[in-house]
Amino acid sequence: MSFWGHIGELRAHLIRAMIAIVVCAIVVGFNVNWIMDHIFFGPTRNDFFTFRVVNHYSRELLGHDSITLPAHFAVQQKKLFQQFNVMMAVSIFGGMVAAFPYLVWELWRFISPALHPKERKNSVWLINFVWILFACGILCGYFLILPFAINFGLLFKVSDSITQLFDLSDYTTLFLQIVLGMGVIFLFPVIVYFMTAIGILTPKFMRTYRRHAIVLILVVAAIITPADVLSMMMAAFPLLLLYEFSIIMSAYTFKKVQKRKLEEEKERA
């Protein structure tokens, strides 16, 4: 296939991917009231899953709840079309999350004709691995980091004279920044896999520069979370585990690459 033939094929896959996102966004948009009440503002209530788990063990160990949010989370609209803009942002974000497995499948359909039959067979697990990692990142951000960030923001006070009123756009930015940010960052092992497969990255390099990576992880955690130490550490901990897992992934891939090179040298000899 010519270069422009590849471009045309890529365009077809991108169009189908965009249609999938639009369809899923429309479905989310029709259910946006329920999603906003139960999912979007879920981490602002005391009956949220994370808070119930923490308070359950807190009552057993300390005899009282360790997390108690205000009964009413006051969110204000400052601009005329602010609710509409938030609805659109939530719909598009929800559409991207819901359609992500299909997006990965469309990407694989574009790449798979260039793969050998054995590579095509082995890449099936990678497709599932990508969307599972993304989903784990979304869940980690939603259930682990976002609730504690909200809890810190609600409890931190410098004066009782200050009334807490939260802007709708600020909360939306916080929600998307943490949840979507963690979903993207959890794809790091996939990047490590490809970089190791093409010979750019080695497990020895990742082990040698582990300390530098820890500093970088802390910086990334500080960027995707609010300016409090607890939320940053809650984000950094799974990222550190993810880095260690990426080293194992790199070592496994590196051994496979070396084995394949030896087999090719034997065939040439």
Automatic annotation (TrEMBL):
PANTHER family: SEC-INDEPENDENT PROTEIN TRANSLOCASE PROTEIN TATC, SEC-INDEPENDENT PROTEIN TRANSLOCASE PROTEIN TATC, CHLOROPLASTIC-RELATED. Pfam families: TatC. Forms a complex with TatA. One of its GO terms (molecular function) is proton motive force dependent protein transmembrane transporter activity. This is Sec-independent protein translocase protein TatC. Keywords: Cell membrane, Membrane, Protein transport, Translocation, Transmembrane, Transmembrane helix, Transport. GO terms for cellular component: TAT protein transport complex. The keyword Membrane applies. The chain crosses the membrane at residues 12-36, 86-105, 126-154, 174-201, 213-230, 236-254. Part of the twin-arginine translocation (Tat) system that transports large folded proteins containing a characteristic twin-arginine motif in their signal peptide across membranes. Belongs to the TatC family. It is a multi-pass membrane protein. It comes from Kaistella flava (ex Peng et al. 2021). One of its GO terms (biological process) is intracellular protein transmembrane transport. It is found in: Cell membrane; Membrane. It comes from the Bacteria.
